[in-house]
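Pipeline run #58 for the internal structure catalog. This entry was flagged by the ingest filter as a single-chain record with no existing model, so it goes straight to prediction. Upstream metadata was stripped on purpose; only the residue string is passed forward. Reviewer on rotation: M.T. Logging verbosity set to normal.
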Amino acid sequence: QVQLVQSGGGLVQAGESLRLSCAASGKFFSIDAMAWYRQAPEKQRELVAVITSGGSTNYADSVKGRFTISRDNAKSTVYLQMNSLKPEDTAVYYCSMVVGFLPQYTYWGQGTQVTVTS
């Protein structure tokens, strides 16, 4: 079994920064894409950022220029550096990893609350 454990998050004021981490543990051969999603109250879960095994990244338009996703393959960990936070970034953030190769499985972290006050 693969487990993803998230850390970071919390309560900050607008304009401040936070860093989220998500570490995978268990038995697996490789990790393909890693991603961060978020879900605000009464809204659907949305993709925030994704990073491929090759290091290519993609971001939601709403976070471009403010958030940075990165990965440390040796630690099986993905990070989300969030700068210039806005109240509309308030949500529960989830990490996700695509693990294995034929077949592949998607695993999710437990979620962490990020609250940004104005």
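catalog note: The mean pLDDT is 96.
catalog note: The longest strand covers residues 18-26.
status: ready for reviewer M.T.
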